[in-house]
Every structure is written in structure tokens, then in C-alpha cells.
Amino acid sequence: MSCRSVHSNRPSRIVLADYVLSDSHSQVGVHSRTGHCGRRTAFQSIVDNRATIHNPQRLCDNGTNFVHPALNSCGNEEACGLPTGNASTMWTIGKEFPPFVQARNLSREKLHTMTGMEAQHNETEAAGKPAAKKTTRTRKPRASKQATFIAEAPAMPIAIKEPGQFGRVNILNCQPSVEDDVYAARVEIGEQFTVSAQVFMEGRTKVGATAVLKNPRGRIMARVPMTVENAGLDLYTAKLQAGEHSTLNPWDAEFAEVKKQLGNWRVAIEGWEDTYGAWLHDARIKVDVLSDVENTLTSGSELLTRWASTRDANLNAEQRKTLREAAKSMMDTSLDAKSRLTFADNADIEALHETNPLRDGLTSSGDHVFHVERPKSSFSAWYQFFPRSEGAYLDDNGKKVQGNFHTAVSGLERAKAEGFNIVYLPPIFPIGVTNRKGPDGALNAGPDDPGSPFGIGSELGGHDTVDPLLGTMDDFKAFCQRAHELNLEVALDFALQCSPDHPWVKEHPNWFRTKPDGSIAYAENPPKKYQDIYPIDFDNDLEGIEREVERIMNLWIDAGVTIFRVDNPHTKPVRFWQDVIAAVTKKHPEVLFLAEAFTRPAMVRALSYAGFTQSHCYFPWRNTKPQLEEFLQETNGKGGYYQHNTFWPTTPDILTAYVRDGGVAAHAIRAVLAALGSPSWGIYNGYELIENRQRADAEEQSSNEKFEIKVRDWSAANRIGISKLLTSLNEIRSKHAATTSYHNLTILPSANENIIAFARQTEGRFTKDGRTDTLIVVVNLDPYNEQQSSIHVDAKALGLPTEHPYRVKDQLTGREYDWSWDNFVSLAPWADVAHVFHVETGEQPLD
């Protein structure tokens, strides 16, 4: 007879003798007379008393009730898939159990009374087999060392289920998950995120669910009760946080502690029968109509007694006392039925049910991997400038004199003053001469035209060389060092393409595609032609190109670069990037990658799966309220676990009609939306000066900095006011935890199509001060006219006061208002284009 065939939901009690606990690793060793199935039922007894069962590859050090899948089988070691060749891990009679079985708080003690199915099972075995001969001498347990558990325990939980196999509780659709978990969801360390699953049982049986979070070493870091999101779909959700939020940089000495928390964390969903909840539901009805009262109250008393003695509930002495006294009081027949029920139906018991429930029929899903990445992988503020324009000036003859790495320190200081934490540089390599482009991409360049930094390579060198006009490699290293002193990371543009003068053209001609006439094909996107750029052909020597790119990236990392912004990665094979990123991050796990891929959604998502940490996106072209609401939810929804969209209002390649025509107000509106609509955002310098002249033939700036040196008058920035706004927005982001996650945005209904509103919220258990952080952002999308609207806030859904108003404070102006369910706003472009309200409810910090 198999072990399963005797599995019963009705618990029993029996004395199990002839066993020992070893002192080694607190492992349990059982001497049994019951044969193979006896081993299994001995495990049953241990599990019922909440010893800890571990997967050998995922040891926990705080005690949980995971069960090895093999325990659902019966027979000899080979039949159960158990180790057979090592005495220290064999399950033969009289030997220790393997290392994944540990007894929490039971080391050096002798259990004398256990619960299980041994009696019935032993009778069955005895009918067909002679009694096993005792071969091992054991010492009888001392009375003072006995640990007796007299309360009934639930039947053994059905273990972590095999793929395709259901447990006692059904668990489906664990999210987030894509492609059968081939690609792990990604979050930044300390970022709030949500997991969900469908959890249910047969009939009207009530269930509960718990999310279990484990760090890369397998240690359980949190057990979070899941709440019902949609009862009709049996959908449960929970919010989690892997590690603590950090602003440390890779070069900081303390970063070593952060690094320990990075890597693959795991989440498992535990489902369980809510015996207390089901009993209470029925008991209230039966007591109210006086139906079968004595049986109902007796069952409740027994349930509370069992709950008090269940190790899995992790109750302290006072909590166990509460349950036992309630169980005893329920049996006082001198009281009426309703009074007796109140001993089990009150706030104290309900609180225990929330935090320390009785979990019968416990079933666990498999582990789902979350890749936890370093600070700034999700939450970052970018600032782009061209080093050659920083410090540039006009000489006495009106000729432009370009800047270099020494003068470019001014760009670092401006980025720091405005609150940004990443500076992004275009390519800094030698620029080709052949077919060099003139102003705004003109085919003919003059003798003084500097050319485009994206036409990479000359006789002076290629991707591994600093443009001598900017300085030397030592100058660049000093530039990076100064950036690090200002707590700024340096991101370098990596455009994998060559000018006709690049050394690769002669050294590796097979890396380029040739036309029938033997000439090398330059880049084209008809009708556009890029005669100064040769694209790479990856089909002839993929491994050789990969090794060279890895070498070059490692060179720049050694110089101080910690992030690569990759130009047009979607025009190269995804597998190429997957290989390169894996090789680079294996040696330098702190390095991040931003994909500049304005292309089809499938390709952008594939690049994210391949290892790109962040992605440029279509935010610049999402300007209307419906467009923005859809895009905000897409960015901050399920897709945010795999693709981290970074919002840029403009770039050297992008100047939309909205920003072109809307002046200062449009720049302010788009900055607020970018800074608060996504955890990652960026500004291209000159935004502070409203550089909005557009080329007639392209959706980008005229006098484009890609093709010329710009001399700017930064003294005008304070007068215009955008620089001050950027600073305020970055200050808000640094102070409010609600801005750090891709998984906490809620669209708020507004009555005006020109006004958009959304909330961001991070729960108090995820903030440093223990207070829930809630921001409400309201933006006028009309850069020309005043707009008014009512904003509806679902106070209950956001956990805000529902019976009285709450105070909100505008983080941009300091003004305060009383808000509730429906609220009036009026925003004008010549006054305030937006409100950024912090909700101040007077909430006390969590302990």
C-alpha cells in the first residue's frame, strides 16, 4: 500500500518510540520499525509539529515548512528518487535524515509523543511483513527532555508541487511571469513590487495565501499575507521589497554591502485552507439561528486549541495563552451561545488570524525568480551634454573654439546642481574625415566643421581611443574622477558603427557588407542616407566582433564608465547583445545598459530580456490625455518588470511639435510628466534655455549639436525658470519613496480632457520613516490656456481617510489644501502648470 492511500484529513495521535535527534546540524534521525512507508510517516509526525523541511539546494535558516517533493512518494530510496550512495545522506533505517530536514528549536531534545498516521499504517504493514529486527541501540529519552505535543495537527501538507501537478490547495498563474519564467522579472534593490496568484480549493472551502521572499542564499526574508484582489477570479496579491533602497555608487566603499543583496531572489506562493475563517463564517450563521450550536462551538474550541499548538503559526506565549483561554471559555455552558462565540469572534483573535493564521493543507508553488539589480537600475535621473560644447567660446574672429574634458567639468557641476545623478556623454572617439557631415547633416562639411561624433573612427583610432581634441585618456579618467566626487555616474554612448576611416575597415574588412562593385555599403534608412557611417555585418565573424566589443567596453569601465547608452541596438542581432552584456556584467556586475531603440515593441522587449537595464521609449510622442494614461499604465504595469522605460522630453534627435510650439509652459509640463511619470527620466542640456527651433525637414533641433559646437549663455537659465523646476523635481524624487517604483502608479479620474492626474504610493513598511508615502500629481496639458477640473480620489483604495478630509501640500509651491473624495483644481500655464501634492494624514510611523 502506498503512503498516499492512507493519507487522511482526520488527525490522530500515537507514541513514536526508538528515534534519536542528532547534534549535527540539528538534523533529525529516526529509527523505525515500519519499513519504507514508516520512514514517510515518521516525517509526517515531524511536519505536523512544524519541524523544518528543506530543499537540499535551498536551505533556510529561520525555519519554515517546505516539504521535499520526494516525501509524496513511497518505497525504497531509488523509487523515491532519494540518495543511495552516501551514508551521511541515506534514508536507510537507523540513519540520519539528509541535510534538508531540520527540527526548529528541537536540537538535543527527544520527542516522545507525535501526531501522524503511524498506527493505521503499521497495522497494514504488519499484515504482510515480519517485524524488523532491531539493529541499533538507542537511549530512552529523559523525562526532563521530553517535548510532548498533545493537540491535534492537520494532515501533512502536500509539498511543493511538481510541474503540472496540483497540491492540496490549487495555485495558478503566479505573476509576474513571461515565457515560462525563462526571463526573470527585474527590480531595483529596495523597489516596491507586487506579486499575484490564483489560489483556491474545491467547493466553498475558504483559502488564504502567503508570499514568501527568499534572498540569493535561500534565506527567507519575508512572509507577507496576500490580500484578495478579485474574489471572482480567486486572485490574491502582495507587495514585497527585496533589500533596502540605497543611493550608494559602485565606487563607494559601502557598496560591497549592497552588492551582497544583488542577484536572483525568489518568491514562492503558499496556499492554505483557512479553517478558522470557514468555521467562523458558518458559526456566526448557526449561532444566530441556534442551529447545531453545541457541535459548532465544540469544533471551534478544538480548532483554537490546535491552532495554539501549531508551530507553523509562530505564536508567542501570550498569543498561545489567548487562544487556549478562548477555547476553554467557549465550552462554558453557563453562558448563552452568542456570548460563547464572542470568545472566538473578536478583534484579538481576528488580529492573530491576519498575522499568525492556522494554515491547514499547506501547499507551495515553485520558486519564481526576481533579478534584483543595483541602485539606479530603475530609479535614476540622467543629464546629457556634449563635452565639446562645454566651455566653448567665440574667439576674436568669431570662430568657435571647442571645449574639452577640462572645461566639461562645468557640465558636471550643472548636472549636480540640478539634482541629476547620471551624466551621459555622446561618443568621445576620433571623428572620421571621409564623407564628414556639415551643419544639420549637410553632405559637404567645411574645413572648420567638427563632424558628427557618431561618425566614429579616423587614422587616430577607433572606439578605444579618445578624440585628441577633447584630451587624453588621462584627462577622461580625471573627468570621471571629478564626476564620482560629485556623486555622478558617467554613462558613455556606444554606437557600434564606423566612419570610412575607422581602423576596423582595413583590419577587419569581413566585418562590413560590400556591394556588387566591391565598395562597402554605408548606412541607409531610405530616403535617408548616412554616407559617413558604415554599419557592421554580424554574419561573418560574430564571435570576433563580440570579443572586440567586450575588450573595448572593459577599457572604458576601467577608465570610470559605469553605464553604456547603446545607440540603435535594434539594428544589431539581439543574441549579440545578450552575449556581450553577459560577458561584461560577469566581470563588472555593476555596469548598466540603456537601449536607444525607437522601434517595434517586440524588439524593445527582446532587448530588455537580453540584458538592457533601461530603454528609451515613445514618451515624447504621447501628448494627449488618453495617450498619456495608456502609456503611464503600460510603463508602470506588468511591463515594468522587464522593460524600464526612461522618459526624455527631448533628445538631440527628437524635438516634437508640442515642445516646439508650446514654449516655456510646454517644457515645464513635459518635465513634470517625465520626472514623476517614470522612476527614470532624462534631460538633454539646453532644455533649460528653451532650445526649440526645429529643422524644416526633420523632427529635431536646427543648428543641431550632433553636427556643430554650441556656445550657450547659461546666465539666461535662471530667468527662464526651467532650471529651477528641474531642481525642484529632482528634490521631490529624492525625498519621496513613492517616486522610486515602476509598480505603484494609479490613474485618477478627472473631468477635463486637458488635465491628467495620477497617484504614486509606497506603503510605510517600505519607507525609511515607516510612514506611507503618497503623491498626487495633477498636470494641465494645455500650454496655452487655464484649465479647471474635478479630480476623484478613491480614498479607500489608497488607504486615505474616508470620513473626513486630509491635508495635501504642494511640493512645488508649499501651498496646502484639504482634499477628500472629489476635489477642484485650476491650473494656468502662466502660473502653475501642475500640482505635486504630498498627502499628510498624520500617520504615525511603523515600529
TrEMBL record:
Residues annotated as the enzyme's active site: 567 (nucleophile), 596 (proton donor)
- Record-stated family: Belongs to the glycosyl hydrolase 13 family. GlgE subfamily.
Q: Which domain of life is it from?
A: Bacteria
This enzyme catalyses: alpha-maltose 1-phosphate + [(1->4)-alpha-D-glucosyl](n) = [(1->4)-alpha-D-glucosyl](n+2) + phosphate
The gene coding this protein? glgE
Which terms in the Gene Ontology molecular function aspect does this entry carry?
A: hexosyltransferase activity; hydrolase activity, hydrolyzing O-glycosyl compounds
> Could you tell me which species this protein originates from?
Bifidobacterium animalis subsp. lactis CNCM I-2494
Where is there biased composition of kind Basic residues? Answer: 131-143
Q: Does the keyword Amino-acid biosynthesis apply?
A: no
HAMAP family xrefs: GlgE (MF_02124)
Q: Does the keyword Zinc apply?
A: no
Q: Could you tell me which residues belong to the region Disordered? A: 122-146
What the protein does comes down to: Maltosyltransferase that uses maltose 1-phosphate (M1P) as the sugar donor to elongate linear or branched alpha-(1->4)-glucans. Is involved in a branched alpha-glucan biosynthetic pathway from trehalose, together with TreS, Mak and GlgB.
Quaternary structure, per UniProt, is: Homodimer.
Top-level EC class: transferase
Keyword list (alphabetical) reads: Carbohydrate metabolism, Glycosidase, Glycosyltransferase, Hydrolase, Transferase
| Residue ranges annotated for the Glycosyl hydrolase family 13 catalytic domain, each copy included | 384-712
- Recall the taxonomic lineage recorded for the source organism: Bacteria, Bacillati, Actinomycetota, Actinomycetes, Bifidobacteriales
Indicate the annotated site residue(s) for Transition state stabilizer.
653
| GO BP terms, alphabetized | alpha-glucan biosynthetic process
Q: Which Pfam families match?
A: GLGE_C (PF21702), GlgE_dom_N_S (PF11896)
Name of the protein this chain belongs to: Alpha-1,4-glucan:maltose-1-phosphate maltosyltransferase
Q: Which residues make up the binding site for alpha-maltose 1-phosphate?
A: 437, 497, 532, 568, 706-707
Enzyme Commission number(s) of this protein: 2.4.99.16
